[in-house]
Amino acid sequence: MSRTVIRGGLVITASDETHADVLIEDGRIAALATTGTPTTQTWTADHTIDATGKYVIPGGVDAHTHMELPFGGTFASDTFETGTRAAAWGGTTTIIDFAVQSVGHSLREGLDTWNAKADGTCAIDYGFHMIVSDVNDNTLKEMDLLVQEGVTSFKQFMAYPGVFYSDDGQILRAMQRSADNGGLIMMHAENGIAIDVLVEQALARGETDPRHHGEVRKALLEAEATHRAVKLAQVAGAPLYVVHVSATQALAEIAHARDEGLNVFGETCPQYLFLSTDNLAEPDFEGAKYVCSTPLRPKEHQAALWRGLRTNDLQVVSTDHCPFCFTGQKELGRGDFSKIPNGLPGVENRMDLLHQAVLDGHITRRRWIEIACATPARMFGLYPKKGTIAPGADADIVIYDPHAEQTISAETHHMNVDYSAYEGKRVTGQVQTVLSRGVPVITEREFTGRAGHGVYTPRSTCQYLL
User: Fold this and answer.
1) Element spanning 36, H or E
2) Backbone φ and ψ of 315, nearest 5°
3) Furthest-apart CA pair in the chain: how many Å?
4) What is the pLDDT of residues 116-140, one digit of tens each?
5) Whose CA is closest to 250, among 194, 320, 308, 192?
6) Distance separating alpha carbons of residues 396 and 162, to the nearest angstrom
7) Among 429, 320, 309, CA closest to 366
8) Coil, strand, or helix at residue 188?
9) Which letter does DSSP use for residue 27 in this model?
10) What are the pLDDT digits (tens) for 79-98?
């Protein structure tokens, strides 16, 4: 039996902050006890970690990543190996990625393809959501089987006609099925049909620069789609999780639904909290680095998103990590913003940026852990195995130095992408050591993990329903 003791740190969970020692046995948390008590002094261990002056926090759960995603004629630049290693460097110990059903193919084929990509390559634990691109009778039956197997969430798109898009009838049918089988529908809420018209009109006017990506994907069309998704879910009697909420108006639709007592949830991402249309407008095609969908919004939307995180109208911060290199990938859209691959790198930066938000007064320390660890674990059926520090939980633990200062940069990050969306941003707080199921993956700022340590993790149904 392998035993590790973490001594002297401030243990922070979504509900508590306490100076405690943590005992780990065979990859799980065995006990917590107040530092310096007779109980902890009797603990013996093979390894002791001194966390004096540091935070001891649960490993982050990033519920929205896209490793190796095919998009726009290319692929996301992070593999499951490089992406999960970078996640570990940033204090994230579990990702939930998206397996893709292609039109004309089964859910099973898509899931098998993504399992093959990830198997034996991940540095940390992982699970899958299923992107549903082709709703038909067979797809609906497969949804039932996948839920039983631990793939309990399904993503649909109101955007990207001709690629991932589902119409209202297809969405309703999938929602009705999830109401029966316990699955959770995740929605990319933008009116893609209307957006395509605006794209065509903008290009016809010669408006080809990256900033026009944000101008055609209007906040009102995010709000309209969010409203429609809420009403369809209400008709179906199904819960709804709206991904990457970026706009004040869309958040208002979620808040209204929640005020009515509906099981409607919202996720936002660091890019919407820290970046804006100012980045999209950077000259010399630099704005292409910031092209993602939903798009970055004017800065005034940020205050509403922070307020939504404080009031719990937004419950989760994920990254939507989907990196494309500037050279050779983002450049595909020179002269036509609609051909810029959509996505930003960020899986390594989320925990640090949210800690900076604590220091900036946007959220509390416990709320930081809640939105980055505990709630994503509960939302997607991983709690309390993941997302907390408690007896019986997996020993996914981060020793975090709240005083270390760092400058975010592509020169020092570990994501397989040639730029950082937060280049030059100074933040206080840094991951020091990361344990995944009790095994050191990062040790005092050195990578000590390995490809294949991470294991596939089946999930139960949503544990966050009202």
Assistant:
1) none
2) -105, -20
3) 75
4) 999 999 999 999 999 999 999 999 9
5) 308
6) 40
7) 309
8) strand
9) T
10) 999 999 999 999 999 999 99
